[in-house]
Amino acid sequence: MKWAEGIDKVGLGLYFIICLFAIANIYSVDNSLGNKQLLFFGISCAVGIFIFLARTKLFENLSGIFYISGILLLIGLFPFGTEILGQKNWYRFGGFTMQPVEFAKIGTALMLATYVAGPDFNLNNRKSLYTTLAIVAVPALVVLAIPDVGSVLVFTAFFIALYREGLNGWFFGVGLILAAVFLISIAVDPLYVFIGILVLSGLYLLINFRSISWNVISIGTFGFVVAILSGIAFATPHVLEKLPKHQRERIEVLYKGEKAFRDTSGYNLLYSKTAIGSGGLTGKGYRQGSVTQGKFVPEQETDYIFCTVGEEWGFLGSSVLVLAYALYIGRIYYLAENQKTAFNRIFGYCLASILLMHFSINIGMVMGLFPTVGIPLPYFSYGGSSLLAFSIMTFIFFKLNYMDKNSLV
């Protein structure tokens, strides 16, 4: 069929495979939730058809409206939001809930793609750089104020797209160093961390003595960086003390193990690991998982859905799912890189990077490599907001790719 030329069948095929496998696993946890997720999937497909029928320029022209609407929805949580599991980041409509942060990501991706693709954009220009950072920072700061730390981490995915467009790599280097100092200061006395910072700084100066431009600006900048790192080291214990108990324990689980908090914040992780480990090579069989069927893992249909896969489908089934995600995300990156227009490319990179961040954090969280921060597995975790938002972004990009392949330019 001529109309189907340009539709990426590999990408859409992987999307449907992941979504349908997800629904099967949600059914294993809870039949009623499986029915709801199937309904959400049907709605997502209907919205996808509408997106394919819409004009491509619509997404670019209305990006500002989508962006502002997303921020207003986030702000509206403060007076009108419903608190679920200790976080006030949901709207409730009768028997349904909606998490606006998922839709704010769509608006941010569209706005970022529109601005960066503009004719006057230049990352070497301070105005362009600051405006670009502000586009990401404004919704991220509102999300942080909610607070929803997990979603704030996902907003860093936009920097991957910006790096493709020329953002200096030192942004990532600085971020990694700051995160490393914070994590080390949790387990090590801040005084020792401070001494380590001074020693490493001294070695850096010694090794690069001749290449460093010794002037007031360079010396002041270096001193400022050392002061910031030292400040983080000494502030970390006080920050942890100010966090709610359950959030503090989620971080401490990484250092002390889930058994130390088996009756509180380590409970989910303990049984999640038990479920995944008990699956063995080939799994216990569909709907035969004792941990899953026994409802030992709270919220197993949402953030911890991967442990259902591990228990019932085993190492082989889990590996197939991970491979499917890897191929799918890689496919979107590949398609994005081969777009003819900057807007299409940037939006594709935003989508792939958000998926990569969600996937990495969720899998790491379920396996105890990352703190529990409430990040769903894309397309897989139960939830209408998450599935619909990811599907909207997906269908927008595949529509852009479709038009790109059928363009004569």
Fold blueprint:
Blueprint: H1 9-29, H2 31-53, H3 57-61, H4 63-75, H5 77-80, E1 82-84, E2 87-93, E3 96-98, H6 100-116, H7 126-145, H8 149-155, H9 158-164, H10 170-187, H11 190-207, H12 216-242, H13 245-256, H14 267-278, H15 290-293, H16 306-337, H17 342-366, H18 384-405
Antiparallel strand pairs: 1-2, 2-3
Helix pairs in contact: 1-2, 1-16, 2-18, 4-6, 4-7, 6-7, 6-17, 6-18, 7-8, 9-17, 10-12, 11-12, 14-16, 16-17, 17-18
Plain-language structure description:
The chain has 409 residues and is mainly alpha-helical. 70% of the residues lie in helices and 3% in strands. It contains 18 helices and three strands. It has helices spanning 9-29, 31-53, 57-61, 63-75, 77-80, 100-116, 126-145, 149-155, 158-164, 170-187, 190-207, 216-242, 245-256, 267-278, 290-293, 306-337, 342-366, 384-405; strands at residues 82-84, 87-93, 96-98. The protein has a three-stranded antiparallel sheet with strand order 1-2-3. β2 and β3 form a beta hairpin. The model has no long low-confidence stretch (mean pLDDT 88).
